[in-house]
Amino acid sequence: xxxxxxxxxxxxxxxxxxxxxxxxxxxxxxxxxxxxxxxxxxxxxxxxxxxxxxxxxxxxxxxxxxxxxxxxxxxxxxxxxxxxxxxxxxxxxxxxxxxxxxxxxxxxxxxxxxxxxxxx
Length: 120
Description:
Blueprint: H1 3-29, H2 57-72, H3 76-105, H4 107-115
Helix pairs in contact: 1-2, 2-3, 3-4
InterPro entries: Phopholipid_MeTrfase
Pfam families: PEMT
Transmembrane segments: 6-30, 71-89
């Protein structure tokens, strides 16, 4: 493996992990749930920290980590896995969460969605 690809892989993995950790820390500081299965249980709309840059830092982190795998082990299957994960999150998981948060936080969440991008 080329050293440049190794360093790129490390950079992408570290960035992905950083996004995930920053998202979890922001939720913990706000004392709200991180559980993606029950976004309706959120007690606080978190809009600070990394959530000021992206509405889905943990999912962004997951996609970056998967992308790092595709950089390190380049193949059509690895690239396809990144695409499948991103599409699932974008078309299934995130819309479900957004609907629950819209119901829970109403106009505040609508303004947040208009001011902060889903990914980056």
